[in-house]
Amino acid sequence: MSAQQIFDIVRTVIIQTLEDQERTPGVIAPQTALNETGLDSLEWAVVVVQLEDRLHIDPFEMGIEGELLTVGDLASLYVRGLHQNEAA
């Protein structure tokens, strides 16, 4: 799975989570700050669970290197996790 495909999945899950709460999502781009998405902490938990269901990986289990500030950072975390999982 490519990095772009993973970003698209992350973006879709964020948008669906906002829409489930009857909120209109703004632009969700790689550089969008996580705290600017409009999601609260409980909704972020929902996003992480949905991503784990779709991608079959929990990259948080492997630890986080660096800062997790943007949607692109989150997508990159899943890319690294998938690559590490494939290598194992």
What attributes characterize this protein structure?
88 residues, 57% helix, globular, Non-ribosomal Peptide Synthetase Peptidyl Carrier Protein, Chain A
Itemize the secondary structure elements and their pairings:
Layout lengths: L2 H18 L20 H15 L15 H17 L1
Walk me through the structure.
By secondary structure, the protein is an all-alpha fold. The protein has one domain (3-87): ACP-like (Non-ribosomal Peptide Synthetase Peptidyl Carrier Protein, Chain A), CATH 1.10.1200.10. It is 57% helix and 0% strand. It is built from 3 helices and no strands.
Strand content: under 5%
Q: The CATH topology, please?
A: Non-ribosomal Peptide Synthetase Peptidyl Carrier Protein, Chain A
Q: Tell me the major beta sheet.
A: none
Topology as H/E string? Answer: HHH
Structural class from helices and strands?
mainly alpha
What overall form do the CA principal axes indicate?
globular
Summarize it.
57% of the residues lie in helices and 0% in strands.
